[in-house]
Design brief:
This protein has about 290 residues and is of the alpha/beta class. The protein contains 14 helices and 5 strands. Helix 12 crosses helix 13.
């Protein structure tokens, strides 16, 4: 299978646990948005289900993996915008999936993306699954906002922390996508260590322009009053007041230690802005010069 950029230490640790058959019952993949958590969760699942534990691409499980694998379930939030969530019906379906015996091999794997969007009712239903571990099942929760999950959920999972991808790795990887080295450098800076974002920007020149415009604006208003910031950022928002205010809060709070902020405040701001609170400011500021 093709190489996944970044978080090599995490990948090696996970692959080692599959090969050594030392899997935990449930994992919590946490770290900034768009850095490859979901990609690695899928690669992890393929290895868990593979007959030779290394995603060989040849065994019957790997052949099924290319289509719909009967022992793999991937859940994402449903709905639109801020209303997107993972409801109790989705969790019930997942519980049902896990209760049935594996069809192809010895295990079943469930991956829940944006697990912070589980509703209260869904979380309660899901807790029952976490409380009944079975060697037949492996669960992976993926989130950029682990503090939005109940402590009782977090404590039942083995947390795996992911990091932003270093610039040198990003540039090397982007260069392998057959783009010019200048573009690779620019995309690496704009994406701030997030391969997913770099890929998105690569495919979407309009988004790329927006990101550059926002970064320029950010650098222009950094020393201005809140009112000026509000005015400036309103340009980029649909619900002008709420979103712009949130963005200012984010800008002002970003220089503090994020652990000082009430978790829900920060989660809400992050969601409104569709940014993650680990967003690095240094790469952004380096664009000022
Ligand atoms: Zn295989």
């Amino acid at each position: 299978m093709s190489e996944i950029v970044g978080n090599k230490d995490v990948q090696e640790r996970l692959w080692y646990t599959v090969e050594g058959n030392r899997l935990a019952h449930a994992y919590l993949f946490s770290g900034p948005e768009e850095i490859g958590k979901k990609t690695i969760a899928h690669a992890f699942a393929q290895r868990i289900l593979c007959e030779t534990s290394n995603a060989c691409g040849l065994c019957s499980s790997c052949v099924q993996w290319r289509g719909v694998h009967p022992d793999f379930l991937f859940i994402v939030p449903e709905g639109e915008g801020l209303r997107r969530n993972i409801g109790v019906e989705q969790v019930r379906a997942a519980r049902h999936f896990l209760q049935l015996s594996p069809q192809a091999g010895e295990r079943k794997v469930l991956v829940i993306d944006e697990a912070d969007r589980l509703t209260g009712e869904a979380t309660n239903a899901f807790l029952k699954t976490l409380e009944e571990p079975s060697p037949r099942m492996v669960i992976v929760l993926v989130t950029a906002m682990p503090w939005m999950l109940l402590a009782t959920v977090r404590s039942r999972c083995l947390t795996v922390r992911f990091s932003l991808v270093p610039e040198t790795d990003m540039v090397k990887w982007l260069a392998s996508l057959k783009i010019s080295s200048g573009e690779a450098q620019a995309l690496s800076k704009l994406s701030g260590g997030r391969p997913g974002r770099a890929k998105r920007l690569l495919k979407d020149p309009v988004a790329r322009k927006d990101v550059i415009a926002i970064l320029r604006l950010f650098t222009e208003v950094i020393g201005e009053s809140s009112f000026e910031k509000l005015k400036a950022f309103s340009v980029f928002t649909k619900n002008r007041t709420l979103l712009a205010q949130s963005r200012i809060l984010w800008l002002e709070e970003a220089h503090r230690d994020i652990t000082e902020l009430p978790p829900h405040t920060f989660g809400l701001i992050s969601r409104l802005l569709a940014v993650d609170p680990y967003a690095p400011f240094d790469p952004i500021l380096s664009l000022v010069s």
